[in-house]
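Hi Y.,

Following your request, here is the sequence exactly as I used it, all 199 residues.
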Amino acid sequence: MEQETTQVSDQTTNDGVEQVETKQQKDQVAYDTYRKVLGEKKKRDEQLQQMAEKLKTLEQKEMEAKGEQQKLIEALRRDLSEKDHKLKEVHQNFAWNNLESQLKTYAASHGCKKPDALVKLMDAADFEGIEVNDMYQVNGDDLARVVNKYKNDYPEFFGRSTPRVEDGTPSNKVERTKSDWKKLPLADKKKMLAKMLNN
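Below is the corresponding structure, written out as tokens. Let me know if you'd prefer a different format.
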């Protein structure tokens, strides 16, 4: 019996060694297979990338053939010109508002009672004669020139009275009293009444 137990234990030991050896062989086969699959995957990835590049060039050629690329370029140019136009408008509005603000401030500091009305009264040529730099700063000499021009032409904006023009008409009105009215002939009364109703 002793021999049988030894044989059985030898067989189990041999079976365990064989299992380890087959397991190692399976691992080695799996690693070899892994390397082979990995190499093929790299090849496939390179082929896929090449095919994607070819597809992209074919699509570009097709777009050129259809003229869609030219349409796209034209649409982008239109969009760019619209944005450029809007940007110019914003700059012009900002420059105008800045010029107007500085003009009102300068006029008010030099005695103008109504700078808003003065700015509305100004001609376009006066505004064009005022230099504004890239930083939207207004030339002080130009401001002084324009304000002084209007200070001389329209002194009422600067607190001085307008010179009175004598045109030869009497400045005092003749008031008629009741007694004067009663003394007038009827025809004169009718003429005066009609004149007052027309006015």
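The chain has a mean pLDDT of 76.

Thanks again,
Q.
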